[in-house]
Amino acid sequence: WINTLIASTLPSGSLSALTIAFQIFTFPQAVIAQAIATAVFPTFSAQAARGERDALRGTLASALNLTLFLSLPATLGLILLGGPIIALLFESGKFTATSTALVAWALLWYAVGLIGHSVVEVVTRAFYALKDTRTPVLIGAGAMILNVIFSLTFTRLFAAWGWFPHGGLALGNSLATAIEMVGLVIVLRQRLGGLDGRIMIGSVTRAAIATTGMGIAVIGWGKMVAAPLWLIGAGGAIVGAAIYFLIAWIVRSPEMRLLRRS
Q1: Which of 32, 88, 198, 248 is the most exposed, having the fewest neighbouring CB atoms within 10 Å of its CB?
Q2: How far lies 26's CA from each of 53, 81, 140, in Å?
Q3: Tens of pLDDT, residues 136-155
Q4: By the 8 A CB rule, do 139 and 183 touch?
Q5: CA pair distance 18, 151, nearest whole angstrom
């Protein structure tokens, strides 16, 4: 409601751009984070009920590793291919190239928050399994207040820099969620006596290497193919996914074995 109120004071098209961009952003979030969180929640609950903190810690680490393994390339994919995909889906009639630029700009800043949103989805389920709803609510309330402050600040800064100001609302949301993620992870780490940090760092490092290779491939694809839009967007997504999973297999990401078993 607050973001809508602020967006309504910005230049024409800002609110529509934010709405469409957020709808696109929530698709990978639902496919990745919500799916994993929903699937793993019964295991969290059973382990917490039996007092198996070590097992819960291991399950949480695996869930977070898989979430990051999928959300890292999704984040870069939204950033690099957001424009072509938006143009392919919506650009016709009154939805012009300017409209595409407005939506892509908002999607760019929402995309940088995909990891934060995804991790929050999983971590909050662990709190619920521990019968603690208060901590996520308190930290979430603090994040909401920060979101308002960031939104007001960044919209003014973006306007002063000559950028589309509605991007500041998306960035404010992403930054506030990132802080919420850090707060939840810190508290939960203390509650569980750690989160298998070394294993997670190794997993994230492999995913980052694969994501870098994917990014290079997608950028190269964009330079090779100028049109049509469906080929730029869909082709870039296919090439990027293929390169990502190939490199992940080469560097022996443990999540590849988990995906194959699934």
Answers
A1: 198
A2: 32, 16, 18
A3: 999 999 999 999 999 999 99
A4: yes
A5: 13
